[in-house]
Write a structure and sequence with these properties.
Blueprint (H helix, E strand, L loop, with lengths): L4 E3 L5 E3 L9 H4 L1
Antiparallel strand pairs: 1-2
Length: 29
């Protein structure tokens, strides 16, 4: 079972949503 929460590079905890993909700095690279 995967973690429901992922820590982004800015240090904020965001809930991972499979249905909704939010662009992140890591994806931009």
């Amino acid at each position: 079972m995967k973690n429901l929460f992922l820590w982004n590079r800015s240090g904020s905890m965001t809930m991972m949503n499979p249905s909704i993909h939010t662009p992140s700095p890591r994806d931009a690279h």
